Amino acid sequence: MAFGSDTAKTEQPTGKRLSEARNKGSIAFSPDLNSAASLLFGFVLLYAIGMSAYNGMYKTMRVSLGNLVCKDFTPDSIVNIATSQVYELIKILSPVFGGLILIGLAISYLQIGFMFNSGLVKPNLSKLNIISGIKNLFSMKSFIKLVFSVLKLLAVGGVAFFFIKKEFSRSNIIDIIDLSLIEICGMSVKLMYGLALRVSVVLLILAILDFFYQKWQYKRNLRMTKDEVKEERKQLDGDPLIKAKIRSVQRQMAMKRMMSSIPTADVVVTNPTHYAVALKYDAAMMKAPTVVAKGADLIAKRIKEIAKKHRIPLVEDKSLAQTLYKTVEIGREIPQKLYYAVAKVLSYVYQLKKTNKKA
């Protein structure tokens, strides 16, 4: 039996796992955050434009409904009055509704970014499963949501209780009775606004905590086992057998290219059986001699066979052959420290070719 961590979901979800969940519509989202932010912003906006909105509505009502006794009412006049009232009301309240829409969109974007998934619009009959619905009612997630709702109710109730208690302790009931109706209404509005503002702040704090909890729970539900991580990495990187086959083909192609470049070499430096390095130098094209092929053991033997077949000189220099093989890659020019040793070899080869031509 396997009791190791390979079967336990201990690994954080990978980017691919998160992307797949997002494409299916699974995201970390707190609806309470949108509601709380919109509520707080709405009260702040009402406080900012409340007086101007009141004055605008008062003026509109006074102009439209003033001197009703002197007006001749007809169906057209009634429609005109109602239309003007609705138009002015929309013009006054449009900043509030526009601001609420913008803050809702902004909070949604901050939570999930830009997301459009047409697949979520398709009906999913599995969501109508009664048994699954009953199980969800008694799940741990529902229990935590219930606890959070109770805590939210207690926090909001506590803030409201202490605020009202504090405000009433400052005021004298007898003094309030002596106030005019307008003053009492103004005091009531001020009291309700202060209460609503504090409740909104508490709801916003609780919504932010709920968002971080939703995010933590979301990643926790998507955690993976080590086997799943390995399998996903294998899918991304490719099957090892296929990769090994590709590398084998690439090596064969590189070997063919290397062997085909040996006939163009000027000399092959050997050691004498273990290493073979083919060098080429073209003063017009190269700054220094270049290694066009190299190999050890069987490959070195094959290089020497091709060199003999194409009458490429073989020069035995154990230390030079070993140094070239270990330090210079195929297609690279030799380092400056080997210039003198290679120059001696090439000089010998050029003299050998001149002697052969004269003979």
Quick structural summary:
This protein has 359 residues and is mainly alpha-helical. It has 2 domains: 21-118 and 126-223, no CATH class; 263-358, secretion proteins EscU (name from scop).
Structure write-up:
By secondary structure, this protein is mainly alpha-helical. The chain has helices at 15-23, 31-65, 75-112, 130-137, 140-170, 173-177, 181-221, 226-237, 240-261, 298-309, 318-327, 339-358, and strands at residues 267-270, 275-280, 290-296, 314-316. A hairpin with a 4-residue loop joins strand 1 and strand 2. Helix 2 (31-65) packs antiparallel against helix 7. The longest helix has 41 residues, at 181-221.
List the helices and strands and how they pair.
Layout lengths: L14 H9 L7 H35 L9 H38 L17 H8 L2 H31 L2 H5 L3 H41 L4 H12 L2 H22 L5 E4 L4 E6 L9 E7 L1 H12 L4 E3 L1 H10 L11 H20 L1
Parallel strand pairs: 1-4
Antiparallel strand pairs: 1-2, 2-3
Helix pairs in contact: 2-3, 2-7, 5-7
